[in-house]
Amino acid sequence: MAPLLSDAMNVIRKYAPNFYPKMGIILGSGLSSLAEQLVDPITIPYQAIPGLTTGGVAGHASLMVLGHLNGIPVVCLKGRIHLYEGVPYDPVRMLIRIVKQLGAHTLIVTGAAGSLREDVGPGELMMINDHINFHPGNPLAGPNDESVGPRFVGMENAYDVALSETMTKVAERLNIPLPAGVYFSVLGPSFETPAEIRAYRILGADAIGMSVVPEVIIARHCGLHVVGVAAITNLAAGMSSEKITHDGTLHFGELAARKLVKLIPAFIKEVGPELVT
Ligand code: HPA
Question: Would 147 be classed as within a structural domain?
């Protein structure tokens, strides 16, 4: 039988019996340095948690790290499960629902993305204010567990307006440019053709990536509030003479990560004390 959320929680509670994070943070490719800022970290490899499959992509370490950031208890998901690895949605659902089950109120989602906007280049950040799900499926398709969330979930407020405003305010204070835009999710793992990018721009894309959206749908279903920031690693296909490579995304991910490593702790300091779980 497939592992249940309670099986996963039993293992996590052995590692961290009395830890109740207020926020979860998903760290994408090249962004994992944030987890190193956690105070008194408890690290659990995904492998030890029933129902989580270990990702095998360079830059993804696959560790759950629980600890304090600016005094606020958080859980960092260091290394995400990508659907292009050929895994089903089950481990992605498990990962996000663990964050909720641990007691978190908010999920901060970060992810590497290509920019479809000339004015937002590699190494910059983009606030995600909405998304377009261009994955071939939906992570909530299949039987619904009413104890987790409703069958039909509204997605009008997928990205929490108040939290996003706070993130923008904090970025301004830190002098980090944070333009907002629509994240367009594709399955990957191939990058896009220039023709696809031209088509997606017409559809409304500002940034494009291979993650974020399934996690956000799962998070909203179980009642987590979401705030999302894309780390721009490249201009999308056809927009520059630079070839798009995974190594390139890691390099510019590092540049963007330096900004995120300042922005996220400051954001958590701002909102953390007020969060009701
Ligand atoms: N396309 C899709 N996913 C990505 C890109 C891109 O250009 N850059 C980083 N992740």
Answer: no
